[in-house]
């Protein structure tokens, strides 16, 4: 059976003006309806290809608002979407004809530098958290695009520049507060509701609305050695083979992402290079800057690079490195898979399909895995695929609808060519691909364990506009 999508048929009860007025009066935050000032702004999400229209948007100011909104939606049989940063590729953080629970106004951050603990509300964006933690030379390992919402990223697992040294985002999570479908506020940690805590660390938004997270903090920077080196795409095979050998003995402080794309029109890119197909190795060394320079030097000097933008920089600046490539409002489509290794057959596929990129916004990102991610036991969290060697993120993107179908097909063809080498898949990189792919993201044993948890906390599948784990 396919996973439910925003196109599923629902039969909401009509919401009359009196009910809406009552909801406005009950919420400390704002209720936005079609026709209101701000409705068009607040219904929009990061992916411009998603054009959905909620019946109401509840911009929640706190836990009580979340409870009231959930009760209202269920009383009126409205499907519920939950949004933090709105960065879901398939647009799961909004809905048609339902209630959007918007957590963005809940953006409080509490830092205890002595205890190395951060308390973070669910509306916080990665860039906001990085700015607050880096004031103290500390960090939560989380993401690579600064305007991503922390909540959705965390609940799927949380990959990023610091993962090889400090693990996934969920590996630093110490507890979370969750509002269930019945409106109960539950704390989940290793000591309280440990099975729910297990499921939240990779199981997405299937069990309730997480309103507050607490994280362990780690030493970092504030300066890191980071950036990228670019080569012409016709050197792709050579770059990838050298990259594979170079990584064989790399320290956990090093995290790399290989990128294929057309060179972007950025100030650091020479005019004669803009629009040419390139392959780049982007990296962040989460340790001593001098050590990072030494470790990165062989890769930077390989072959005949056409551009090098490595150097010491604030970590918060490097967290914005990919922001121009993932602007709000562009049209995004992704296909993803994990592979065990970069064998010659995989490298040949990467080189061939990379040369077919035709949109200035399309790209592939080949994430290096391993390190601290792989040292956490496979069954310690719901996140799957800790033994993956690399994660492919194949992005068929355009600025508008023009050309989008062709880029989407390019991404599908690239992904299909890699099919013999697929192992697992990261749930945050799924589109709306159906139940079989959700099962693949977790593996059968974890999926069944998550189903049992779903039956306990959300037997009616109230939280279904997600990468859904059906209770039945």
From TrEMBL:
Its cofactor is FAD. Gene3D superfamilies: 3.30.465.10, 3.40.462.20, Uridine Diphospho-n-acetylenolpyruvylglucosamine Reductase, domain 2. It comes from the Bacteria. Residues 50-220 form the FAD-binding PCMH-type domain. Signal peptide: none annotated. Keywords: FAD, Flavoprotein, Oxidoreductase. One of its GO terms (molecular function) is FAD binding. Belongs to the oxygen-dependent FAD-linked oxidoreductase family. PANTHER family: BINDING OXIDOREDUCTASE, PUTATIVE (AFU_ORTHOLOGUE AFUA_1G17690)-RELATED (PTHR42973), FAD-BINDING PCMH-TYPE DOMAIN-CONTAINING PROTEIN (PTHR42973:SF39). This is FAD/FMN-containing dehydrogenase.
């Amino acid at each position: 059976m396919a996973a439910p999508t925003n196109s599923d048929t629902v039969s909401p009860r009509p919401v009359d003006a009196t009910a809406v007025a009552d909801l406005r009066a009950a919420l400390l935050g704002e209720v936005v309806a079609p026709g209101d000032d701000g409705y068009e702004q607040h219904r929009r999400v990061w992916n411009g290809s998603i054009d959905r229209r909620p019946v109401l948007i509840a911009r929640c100011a706190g836990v009580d608002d979340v409870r009231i909104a959930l009760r209202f939606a269920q009383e009126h049989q409205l499907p519920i979407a939950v949004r933090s940063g709105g960065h879901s590729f398939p647009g799961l953080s909004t809905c048609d004809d339902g209630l959007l629970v918007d957590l963005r106004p809940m953006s409080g951050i509490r830092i205890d530098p002595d205890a190395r603990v951060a308390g973070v509300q669910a509306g916080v964006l990665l860039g906001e958290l990085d700015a607050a933690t880096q004031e103290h030379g500390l960090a939560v390992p989380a993401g690579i695009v600064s305007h991503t919402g922390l909540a959705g990223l965390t609940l799927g697992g949380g990959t990023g520049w610091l993962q090889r040294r400090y693990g996934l985002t969920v590996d630093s999570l110490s507890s979370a507060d969750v509002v269930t479908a019945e409106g109960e506020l539950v704390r989940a940690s290793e000591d309280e509701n440990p099975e729910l805590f297990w499921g939240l660390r990779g199981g997405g938004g299937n069990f309730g609305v997480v309103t507050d997270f607490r994280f362990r903090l780690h030493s970092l920077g504030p300066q890191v050695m980071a950036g990228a080196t670019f080569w012409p795409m016709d050197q792709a095979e050579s770059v990838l083979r050298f990259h594979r050998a170079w990584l064989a003995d790399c320290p956990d402080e090093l995290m790399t992402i290989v990128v294929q794309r057309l060179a972007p029109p950025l100030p650091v890119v020479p005019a004669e290079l803009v629009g040419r197909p390139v392959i780049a190795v982007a990296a962040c060394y989460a340790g001593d800057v001098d050590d990072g320079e030494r470790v990165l030097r062989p890769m930077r000097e390989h072959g005949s690079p056409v551009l090098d933008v490595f150097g010491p920089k604030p970590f918060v600046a490097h967290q914005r490195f990919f922001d121009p490539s993932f602007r709000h409002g562009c049209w995004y489509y992704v296909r993803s898979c994990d592979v065990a290794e970069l064998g010659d057959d995989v490298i040949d596929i990467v080189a061939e399909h990379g040369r077919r990129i035709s949109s200035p916004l399309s790209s592939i990102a080949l994430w290096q895995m391993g390190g601290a991610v792989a040292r956490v036991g496979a069954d310690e969290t719901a996140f799957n695929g800790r033994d993956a060697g690399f994660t492919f993120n194949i992005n068929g993107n355009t600025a508008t609808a023009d050309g989008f179908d062709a880029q989407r097909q390019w991404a599908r063809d690239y992904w299909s060519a890699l099919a013999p080498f697929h192992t697992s898949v990261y749930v945050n990189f799924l589109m709306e691909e159906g139940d079989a792919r959700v099962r693949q993201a977790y593996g059968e044993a974890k999926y069944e364990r998550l189903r049992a948890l779903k039956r306990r906390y959300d037997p009616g599948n109230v939280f279904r506009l997600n990468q859904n784990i059906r209770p039945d």
